[in-house]
Design brief:
CATH topology: Immunoglobulin-like
Strand content: 25-35%
Helix content: 25-40%
Radius of gyration: 24 Å
CATH architecture: Sandwich
Structural class: alpha+beta
Number of domains: 1
Oligomer: single chain
Shape: elongated
Mean pLDDT: 85
Length: 217
């Protein structure tokens, strides 16, 4: 007996869509990041996570407009609790992953043999783009003892089938990003720039045609 393919495909699409929505909805928008410094039992200490290094102090929560570039800085320490030769990882995980099998948005911070405590300490300054959709988003710091970074990222799905919890032995939420809609002033300026660019482009085309015509005459 042949099983119709189309209904199966439709069901798979619906299941995927509802799964993605449930992952996003499962993230509580009212929670606040873990107060730093904090140490996790798997061998990670995060000393600070700053979402605006220009301001005084450490900003673990910020409000930005959709699509803004965010400059961030983090200081962390990593050591092995399973022997000095064990390979381990540290990475940041962003809640705006559209698919969690595996997560699509993350930033590797460390991959290698850190050794026993005190292991290695690193400071990273980096830039990322805020989501284009308004909402409340979170950043986790996570660690693993996988053979490689890709396996460590894939293990998020294997362990949680979605976003990790607020905090467990492997890491926790250290940043909160409130994304607001673009202001009308920004949109107006953007439209003006686009309009001016189009006008200049048309003028250049018209001028080039006149020059070509003059050359032929």
């Amino acid at each position: 007996m042949r099983i119709p393919i189309l209904p199966i495909i439709i069901l798979q699409i619906l299941a995927y869509t509802s799964t993605v929505l449930s992952y996003q909805d499962s993230i509580d928008e009212d929670i606040e990041p873990i107060t730093l410094p904090y140490t996790w039992a798997s061998g990670i200490t995060c000393y600070y996570f700053d979402l605006d290094p220009i301001l005084d102090g450490y900003q673990q929560s910020i409000a930005v407009e959709a699509g803004d570039l965010v400059v961030a800085e983090i200081k962390f320490q990593r050591w092995s609790v399973y022997g000095e030769e064990r390979v381990n990882q540290v990475f940041l995980l962003y809640s705006w992953s559209r698919n969690w099998n595996p997560p699509t948005h993350y930033l590797p911070l460390w991959f290698g043999v850190s050794g026993d405590y005190p292991g290695v300490a690193r400071i990273w300054r980096f830039v990322f783009k805020a989501p284009s959709e308004p909402g409340v988003y979170y950043v986790w710091i996570r660690g693993d003892y996988a053979s490689g970074m890709e396996e460590a990222i894939a293990n998020i799905w294997r362990m949680y089938h979605g976003p990790p919890p607020y905090s467990d032995d492997g890491g926790g939420i250290i940043g909160k990003i409130i994304v607001e809609a673009r202001s009308m002033i920004y949109m107006d300026i953007t439209l003006r720039i686009i309009s001016i660019s189009l006008i200049l482009g048309l003028i250049a085309i018209f001028a080039s045609k006149l020059l070509i015509k003059a050359g032929k005459e």
